[in-house]
Amino acid sequence: MSSQEIPEDKHLPSEQGDAHHGGVAVADDPFADPGLPVHKPRIQDIDDRAAKRSERTVAMLFTVSMLATIAFIAAYVAIPVDKIVYIFPLGKVSALNFALGLTLGTALFCIGAGAVHWARTLMSDVEVADDRHPIAAPAEVKAKVMSDFAAGAEESAIGRRPLIRNTLLGALAMVPLSGLVLLRDLGPLPEEKLRKTVWAKGKLLINQNTGEPLRPEDVQVGSLTFVQPEGLEEGSHEFLTEIAKAAVMIVRIQPEDIKDKRELEWSHDGIVAYSKICTHVGCPISLYEQQTHHVLCPCHQSTFDLSDGARVIFGPAGHALPQLRIGVNGEGFLEALGDFEEPVGPAFWERG
Hints:
Blueprint: H1 43-46, H2 48-78, E1 84-87, E2 91-94, H3 95-121, H4 139-155, H5 162-182, E3 205-207, E4 224-229, H6 239-246, E5 248-252, H7 261-265, E6 271-275, E7 287-289, E8 294-296, E9 303-305, E10 311-314, E11 323-324, E12 326-328, E13 334-336, H8 348-351
Region (Disordered): 1-32
Pfam family, one: Rieske
InterPro entries: QcrA_N, Rieske_2Fe-2S, Rieske_2Fe-2S_sf, Rieske_Fe-S_prot
């Protein structure tokens, strides 16, 4: 039988979806809005005692957050930075880092947990459907938003539950204190450290090579000797920090060859003491020319005249080397008569 002989109304699904003859039903709207589920009240909505328990739980979490923030600050102040403790299963860890991480994590977690518990148990959980609107909201939509905000604030019961409100505000206000405390780790405050060294009146000039104090007769004309202040021991915790500012070179020049009046007054029998730290980028000066009394920085060839106040005569250094005033004590040893009167080191004037 050809296809032309098959009746058009035989063996075809009914357009109306005849279920008795194998028809396929066609839904009127397969994407119909199912609507919102039926709202089921929570126990806190119907039992005031349960609501009070939830309120106390939220307040407790916010209070724990405040206590954790206080503990964070106390740990930062009280625990030494080099203290190591054993904590299972982490092993040996820094006591300070562990305490800071634990307390700050607890403070942030309790704020988040308290906010979530507050929202799930006390704030209104009625679902509200709202139509989309253009990005540029008209005035009536703006008014509705403000109305909804006011309604949300009312439903949150923040005005009627001062315990939650006050503890939340306290927790949020105290957590930023952790960040303020951490600013301390940006580095120690310089205070007067850039302007002062460990040189002081009465400190002996110690030969860096021999470790012994110097007498005037130990310094020969034309010689260059490097010294450090008495009491600064190599290998100590602060040695590198302090020697970077306190390193001094002494040279003996015939007094009649000294051109600068103050340099002559601050010397002893032609022995002058100047900072060894170049005023360009802080390299140690180590080259001395006896006939001209010039010292040369090997890094960028800044040259200073030690017979004329250590002024710069060549190179990129911006100012003269600071001079250390020296004398002789009752035992005949060379000693400092004070600290440098101007800051030591490179580019200080640019750094303020």
